[in-house]
């Protein structure tokens, strides 16, 4: 069942108004995947920095023991 605005349809069973714009849905899904990818990159960088900091601390401790 169509609603007055063409981007929306009404569900026959629940009577809910739903957006029918497929392009908007695809754009949303692509944006969501992009955001998840960016978050994964950031988390990887954070882990790499933590590992580097740990390595630097170990090197500093080793140098202190030698002196």
- Within the largest sheet, what's the order of strands? 1-2
**Hey, roughly how much beta strand do the residues contain?**
5-15%
Q: Report the count of strand segments.
A: 2
In round numbers, the mean pLDDT is 89
What is the 3D form?
A: rod-shaped
Largest sheet geometry: 2 strands, antiparallel
What class would the helix/strand composition place it in? mainly alpha
Percent in helix: 55-70%
Distance separating the two termini? 82 Å
Low-confidence stretches: none
The helix/strand order is EEH
Instruction: Tell me the radius of gyration.
Output: 26 Å
Descriptive labels:
9% strand; 67 residues; mainly alpha; single chain
Would you write up a description of this structure?
With 67 residues, the protein is mainly α. The protein has one domain. The chain contains one helix and two strands. It has a two-stranded antiparallel ribbon with strand order 1-2. A hairpin with a 6-residue loop joins strand 1 and strand 2. The radius of gyration is 26 Å and the shape is rod-shaped.
Q: What's the quick description here?
A:
This protein is mainly alpha-helical.
């Amino acid at each position: 069942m169509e609603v007055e605005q063409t981007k929306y349809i009404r569900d026959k069973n629940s009577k809910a108004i739903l957006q029918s714009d497929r392009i908007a849905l695809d754009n949303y899904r692509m944006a969501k995947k992009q955001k998840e990818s960016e978050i994964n990159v950031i988390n990887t960088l954070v882990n790499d920095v933590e590992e580097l900091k740990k390595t630097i601390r170990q090197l500093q401790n080793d140098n202190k023991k030698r002196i």
